[in-house]
Amino acid sequence: MFKYKISVVMPAYNEEEVIEKVVKEFKSIPEVTEIVVVDNNSTDRTVELAKKAGAKVVKESRQGYGFACQTALREAKYDIIFLTESDGTFEAKDVYKFLSYVDDVDLVLGTRTTRELIEHNAKMGWFLLWGNLLLAKLIQLRFWGRTRLTDVGCTFRAIRKDALKKIINKFEVGSSEFSPEMIIISLKSNMRVVEIPVNYKARIGESKITSNFWKSLKVGLKMIKLILTL
Questions:
Q1: Does a structural domain hold residue 197?
Q2: Pick the residue with more confidence: 11 or 133?
Q3: How much is the pLDDT for 104?
Q4: Tens digit of pLDDT for each residue in 209-230?
Q5: Domains identified in the chain, total number
Q6: What's the CATH code of the domain at 180?
């Protein structure tokens, strides 16, 4: 029997097409004790369908991925906290990959750079693949010898509750740059960080960021600035 209780948390903004399916998939994992969906001002049926599927729904009125993630992490009650997406891009079964490492490290990051695990039509073209790799290596260079990183933007990760308590009040980024901020703050706090390959699927519905090249580029430039200055 697994000795920890697990919280799965996810931000959500207008994900009515898939939120019910995602919640049910994670809920089917016996080790998962709670699922928290943070509604970031959805205007569709996201809240209704998340509740119907069995999730606890929390409101975050400040618009932004980072704000929603911070609220999600704060709401989690249990020993191991999984941060994931509500868009159907990740496989719930990959939870077990993360659990293999939680006794040895503080933060386990997913990486979407293993070609064999990227589904056809998943939003991981050359620009996103190499862009995320470049940014990840910038962080790795800053913390040389501490960890190996290949994907700064993978938003499927697991953190121990005791480790999260050390860094939760240090987060400041409310937008999409939250992903690298969490990695950098963890490393600056001398946490043990490891990266593992995860399955990556085509999202259901339209991405709020990666559907547009210029939006992706803008986010990437903001991430570079964050990595160099944080």
A1: yes
A2: 11
A3: 95
A4: 555 666 766 776 777 677 777 6
A5: 1
A6: 3.90.550.10
Full domain range(s) for residue 21: 6-229
Residue 46 phi, psi (nearest 5): -55, -50
Q: Where does the pLDDT of residue 157 fall: very low under 50, low under 70, confident under 90, or very high at 90 and above?
A: very high
Q: Is 1 a domain residue?
A: no
Taking alpha carbons only, the member of 82, 93, 83, 75 closest to residue 25 is 93
Phi-psi region of 145 (alpha: psi -120 to 50; beta: other; left: phi over 0): left
Does 72 map to a domain? yes
pTM: 0.88
With helix as H, strand as E and coil as C, how does the chain read? CCCCCEEEEEEECCCCCCHHHHHHHHHCCCCEEEEEEEECCCCCCHHHHHHHHCCEEEECCCCCHHHHHHHHHHHCCCCEEEECCCCCCCCHHHHHHHHCCCCCCCEEEEECCCHHHECCCCCCCHHHHHHHHHHHHHHHHHCCCCCCCCCCCCCCEEEEHHHHHHHHHHCCCCCCCHHHHHHHHHHHCCCCEEEEECCECCCCCCCCCCCCHHHHHHHHHHHHHHHHHC
Classify residue 98: in a domain, yes or no: yes
165 Cβ contact list (under 8 Å, min separation 6): none
